[in-house]
C-alpha cells in the first residue's frame, strides 16, 4: 500500500516536472512575456502613484504597498493564468477531438494529472516570468516589501493555495467542453471575470460598499488578492493570516470537489468517435 | 527568398486570376487595389462563416465589449475615491479612454488577425499565401477576420460619446473636427504598430507577445492622463514610438490643456501625418520580413 502511494506521488511529481520543463523550453517567449509584464508594471505603477498621492491610505495600503501590489501582481500574472493560457484550452481541444479517451484510460487520476502539470507550469512561470519584473520594479520604485522571511514563506504557501484555486476554476472551464464542444465563449467570460474579480485591475479592497464586500469573498479573491495581502501584511496578527489561508483552502477544496462531480458526470456521458 | 524560388510558375498560372482581380495593371496602385479587393473578399467569407453561428457571435461581441468595459469600470471606481487624477476629471479621462479604446479597437478589427502570422510561419501554411494572387499582407490581415472585435470599437465610441456630453469645453469647429480625425488617425498609428509587429514575427516568432506591450500596453497608458506618467515615459511614447499622437496630443488640444512636454499646439493636428510617416518604416519592415521568409519545408 505504502509502495503504491509512493509510486503515485512519484508519478505526479514527474508530471509536474514535465510541465515545468515544457514551459522552460520557450526561452524567447518567456523573455517577451517578461518584457510585457515589466512594461505594464511601469504603466500601472504610474497610475497607482497618482491615485495614492491623491488619496493616501486608499484601500488600507500606503503608496509603497500599492506599488508593491502592482509589481508582485505582474509577477504572479502568468503563473495564475488570469489572462488565459495554461492547460484549459488544451483539455478542451482533447475533449473536442476525442483524445481525452486516451487520458481517461491512463492509470492515473485525470484531475490530479492536470493539476500536477499545471502546478509545474506555474512554478516555472513564477520563476521565469516573475523574478525579473519584480527586480526591475524594485529598482525603480520604492516597493514596501517585507524583510521578514516568515512573511515570505506564508506568502509562498498562500500563492500555492491560490494556484490550486486558479486550477480548480479552470478545470471546471475545461470540462465544460464535454457539453459545449467549443470553449471559446466560456473562456472569454472566464477571463473577464478573473481579470476583474481577482484584483488585477484594481485591488479589491478599493472596491466600494457592498459590492466590495461581495468581490472579496468570491473565489477569484483567493487567487491574487489574498496572497498579496498576506505578503503586504494587511492581516493584523497570526490568527487573521491563518483565516485568510483557510479562506483559500476552503475555496480550493470546494472547487476541486465540484470539479470531481462534474468530471464523473462528464465521463458517464462520454462517447468517443472512431474505432 | 522563398517568394523568388517558389513563385514564378505559380505566378504564371495565376495570371488569369490576377487579371480578374485587376492586378494585371502593374504598379503600386494596381497592387493596392488588388490588396483591398482581396481583403474585402476574404473578410466577406469570414463574416459569412461567423454568421453561421449567430448566437455565439452575439455572445462573443458582448464578451468583447464587456472585457474592455471593465477597464472603464476600474477607472470609475478610482474616481469614486478622488475628484481628479493627475488633474483630470472623470469626463476628461473618459475622453482619453474612449478615443484610445476606439482607435485600438478599429486597428485590431481591421488588422488584428496579423498576429496569427507566427503560427502560419511555424506550420508552413504561409507558403500557400505566397502563391495566391493577392498581396500577402492583405491575406494575413484578413485571415480569420474576427467581426466580434467590433465590440471594443462600439464600447470605446460609447464612452467617448458620454465624455463629450459631459465635458465643459468651448467647442470650436477645429475641436469638433479633431474628434473623428483623432480616432481614425489613432487607429492608423496602432495599425502601423500591428504591421511592424507582424514583420517582427518573421525574425522572432516566439516573441510575439512583445507587440502587446505597444498595443494593449500603449492603450492602457493612453487611457490615463499624460500628467500621471514620468517625463521619460512620455518622451518615449512621443518621440520613439509616437503613441502620444493616437489621442493624448489631440485630446489635450480639445480640453484646452498644455502638453506636459511643451509641444506646440499644431502637434495636436499632426496625428494623420505621424500615422503616414509610421507606415514607411512599418511597411519596409514587412517587406524585409517577407523577403527573409524561408519556409519550414517539409
Can you offer a commentary on this structure?
The complex is a heterodimer of chains A (275) and B (298). Chain A is globular. In chain A, 47% of the residues are buried. Chain A has one domain. Chain A has 275 residues and is mainly α. Helices cover 75% and strands 0% of the residues of chain A. Chain B is mainly α and 298 residues long. Chain B is built from 14 helices and no strands. The two termini of chain B are 17 Å apart. Classes of the chains: A mainly alpha (275), B mainly alpha (298). The A-B interface holds A 26-29, 31-33, 35-36, 39-40, 42-44, 46-47, 49-51, 54-55, 58, 182, 184-185, 188-189, 191-192, 195-196, 201-202, 206-208 and B 56, 59-60, 63-64, 66-67, 70-71, 73-74, 77-78, 80-82, 84-86, 204, 206-210, 212-213, 217, 220-221, 224, 227-230, 233.
Amino acid at each position: 500500500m505504502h509502495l503504491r502511494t509512493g509510486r503515485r506521488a512519484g508519478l505526479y511529481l514527474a508530471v509536474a516536472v514535465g510541465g515545468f520543463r515544457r514551459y522552460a523550453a520557450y526561452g524567447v517567449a518567456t523573455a517577451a512575456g517578461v518584457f510585457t509584464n515589466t512594461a505594464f508594471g511601469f504603466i500601472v505603477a504610474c497610475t497607482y502613484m497618482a491615485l495614492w498621492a491623491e488619496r493616501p491610505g486608499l484601500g488600507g495600503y500606503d503608496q509603497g504597498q500599492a506599488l508593491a501590489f502592482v509589481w508582485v501582481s505582474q509577477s504572479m500574472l502568468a503563473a495564475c493564468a488570469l489572462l488565459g493560457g495554461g492547460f484549459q484550452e488544451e483539455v478542451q481541444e482533447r475533449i473536442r477531438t476525442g483524445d481525452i479517451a486516451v487520458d481517461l484510460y491512463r492509470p492515473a487520476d485525470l484531475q490530479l494529472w492536470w493539476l500536477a502539470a499545471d502546478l509545474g507550469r506555474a512554478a516555472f512561470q513564477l520563476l521565469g516570468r516573475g523574478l525579473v519584473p519584480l527586480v526591475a520594479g524594485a529598482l525603480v520604485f520604492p516597493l514596501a516589501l517585507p524583510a521578514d522571511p516568515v512573511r515570505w514563506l506564508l506568502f509562498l504557501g498562500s500563492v500555492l493555495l491560490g494556484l490550486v484555486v486558479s486550477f480548480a476554476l479552470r478545470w471546471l472551464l475545461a470540462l465544460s467542453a464535454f457539453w459545449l464542444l467549443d470553449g471559446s465563449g466560456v473562456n472569454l467570460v472566464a477571463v473577464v471575470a478573473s481579470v476583474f474579480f481577482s484584483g488585477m485591475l484594481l485591488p479589491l479592497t478599493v472596491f466600494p460598499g457592498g459590492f466590495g464586500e461581495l468581490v472579496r469573498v468570491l473565489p477569484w479573491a483567493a487567487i491574487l488578492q489574498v496572497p498579496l495581502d498576506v505578503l503586504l501584511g494587511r492581516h493584523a496578527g497570526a490568527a487573521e493570516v491563518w483565516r485568510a489561508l483557510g479562506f483559500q483552502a476552503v475555496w480550493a477544496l470546494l472547487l476541486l470537489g465540484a470539479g470531481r462531480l462534474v468530471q464523473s458526470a462528464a465521463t458517464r456521458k462520454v462517447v468517443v468517435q472512431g474505432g | 527568398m522563398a517568394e523568388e524560388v517558389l513563385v514564378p510558375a505559380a505566378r504564371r498560372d495565376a495570371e488569369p486570376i490576377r487579371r480578374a482581380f485587376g492586378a494585371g495593371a502593374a504598379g503600386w496602385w494596381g497592387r493596392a487595389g488588388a490588396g483591398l479587393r482581396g481583403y474585402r473578399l476574404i473578410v466577406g467569407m469570414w463574416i459569412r462563416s461567423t454568421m453561421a453561428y449567430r448566437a455565439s457571435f452575439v455572445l462573443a461581441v458582448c464578451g468583447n465589449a464587456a472585457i474592455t468595459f471593465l477597464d472603464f469600470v476600474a477607472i470609475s471606481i478610482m474616481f469614486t475615491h478622488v475628484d481628479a487624477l493627475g488633474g483630470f476629471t472623470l469626463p476628461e479621462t473618459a475622453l482619453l479612454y474612449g478615443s484610445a479604446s476606439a482607435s485600438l479597437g478599429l486597428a485590431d478589427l481591421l488588422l488584428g488577425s496579423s498576429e496569427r502570422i507566427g503560427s502560419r510561419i511555424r506550420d508552413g501554411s504561409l507558403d500557400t499565401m505566397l502563391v495566391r494572387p493577392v498581396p500577402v499582407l492583405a491575406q494575413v490581415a484578413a485571415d480569420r477576420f474576427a467581426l466580434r472585435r467590433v465590440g471594443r470599437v462600439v464600447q470605446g465610441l460609447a464612452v467617448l460619446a458620454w465624455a463629450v456630453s459631459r465635458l465643459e469645453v468651448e467647442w470650436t469647429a477645429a475641436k469638433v473636427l479633431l474628434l473623428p480625425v483623432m480616432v481614425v488617425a489613432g487607429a492608423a498609428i496602432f495599425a502601423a504598430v500591428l504591421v511592424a509587429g507582424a514583420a517582427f514575427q518573421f525574425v522572432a516568432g516566439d516573441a510575439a507577445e512583445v507587440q502587446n506591450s505597444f498595443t494593449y500596453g500603449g492603450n492602457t497608458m493612453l487611457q490615463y492622463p499624460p500628467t500621471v506618467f514620468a517625463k521619460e515615459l512620455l518622451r518615449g511614447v512621443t518621440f520613439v514610438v509616437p503613441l502620444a499622437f493616437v489621442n493624448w496630443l489631440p485630446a489635450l488640444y480639445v480640453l484646452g490643456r498644455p502638453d506636459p512636454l511643451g509641444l506646440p499646439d499644431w502637434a495636436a493636428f499632426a496625428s494623420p501625418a505621424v500615422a503616414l510617416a509610421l507606415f514607411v518604416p512599418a511597411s519596409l519592415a514587412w517587406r524585409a520580413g517577407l523577403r527573409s521568409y524561408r519556409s519550414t519545408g517539409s
